[in-house]
Amino acid sequence: MAFQIDDDLFKLSPLSAARKSAYIEQAKSWLPAMINAVEETEADGWKPCGMTDPTITNGVTLCKKVTEGNPVVMIRGQTIIPNYSVADALSSQKSINTSARLRNGLHANDPMNIDSSVLHVLQKGESLTDDTPLAQIVWAVFQAPGPIWARDFCWLQYVDTAKDSKGREAMVCACQSIDDFEQCHNLQSSHKFVRGNICTTGYIYTETDIPGEIMITYVVQVDPKGSIPKFVVNLVAAGQGENAGRVRDTTIGLNAILKKFNRSIQDAEPTKAHARVRPIDVSSSLVYANNTCTETCEAEEDGVLEVLIHPTNGDSIVCNGEDYSVDKSTGVPPSFSLDVVKGQKVELVFKNKSSAMFKKFKQVWWYGRVKTSSGSERSIPAHTLSPLSNSTRNKKKGKGMLHKIAKTISPKSKKDNNSFETPQKPEIKIVEKIKVVEKLVHPETSEVAKAYQKGFATGIACIVIAILMQYVYSNFLSGGVGAGGAKVEVQE
Questions:
Q1: Are 350 and 414 in contact, with CB atoms under 8 Å apart?
Q2: Domains in the chain and their CATH numbers?
Q3: Rounded average pLDDT over 355-368
Q4: What is the spatial distance between Cα 163 and Cα 170, in angstroms, rounded to a whole number?
Q5: Given this model, what pLDDT does residue 350 score?
Q6: Is residue 144 a contact partner of residue 188, using CB atoms and an 8 Å limit?
Q7: Considering the chain, what is the average pLDDT of its residues?
Q8: Which residues form a coiled coil (predicted)?
């Protein structure tokens, strides 16, 4: 029996103004602790995650802290993002206010994410640059390793600006689980999803003493609940702090793409030197190997639709049947153009031609605008991400907490409902008739036994090989070269 989540997974209904206000006030109260976590030191309970002080991995300084009443350690990861500002970070975080953008971001940065949805937008501004904070209720489910059931979370997210102890500008994206939101009911009995708990967690972007750079701090304290021992959770928790580095690298990459887009616009229209592509206008899509992804947008005026395309993780992408490649010598992104009329909906179909052997995905950044006869232009970012084919899977390696306990495959699905006026229902269809999903959610006893047998056989084989290698090195090689031990990882 194939496992599938129903479209009406949650029975959503509008929230009262009083309840929205209560949630917003609750989220506001989290900000001081998040800001304080940026500058706290060993005197406040923070210790290095590793044997060295400080512990630095991939340019991220990692610390841990034991908090009262919580058996799961809090992790802090900090790194620097050059050529970036708090205002840039604010608009970027506030733009993730639809299920499509949420899914895209989580799938790109966390290979364990199965699906996600923005259930309710409690508050957002007229634009991404105004002073109105973003407040929303979010749900997501993440794949767990081997026979362990998947974990899902329902949390309240709040994005706003604040001042640190030195009076410098900061942006805070704070997240914590909410237990009193009955519309996001527990799915353990119906879907074998164990509801985890997000404690003090989120991103803080703060100005530094060096102009043009900011520090990103990722604070995370997540309890996956269930039968996973807390000492195991704490052993692998430090890897969560490395997310700060992944966000840094993604931001640097996007800035490079924006520069190329801007340069392309200026070269094509030197009289419009003031024209700039703003980060919030740039859309992105994940296109998996040998699959297509369709982006739908609507023209607001008559004119010519121009789309600038920049595929990453590869040099070319197919858009509407034509092959587009980045000119490596100039870095100029390829463009696509089409005559359109006001109200016309245009589907941009991207295809990834990568070899299916590696199951790679490409992230396509694109910027669309309509040039009218009067010379005006309007950007048309995508608003809908259609489902990928049922054969889509993502085998990208990641360092999520559950992934570090053991490694597994993450099936993917895409479907979305982006309305703001009404609650956004998660329209989720996990890959149908994929045995991997059946084993994940409903592991049969015989298949679990086979997994143990396979893991045990693999472990024995590796140990035998290690013993033989040690014998060869110690008896036949000169120069006093010692035998190295073999590290064996067995998935159970």
A1: no
A2: 17-253+397-410+422-430 (3.30.530.20), 283-380 (2.60.40.4070), 444-492 (no CATH)
A3: 70
A4: 6
A5: 83
A6: no
A7: 74
A8: none
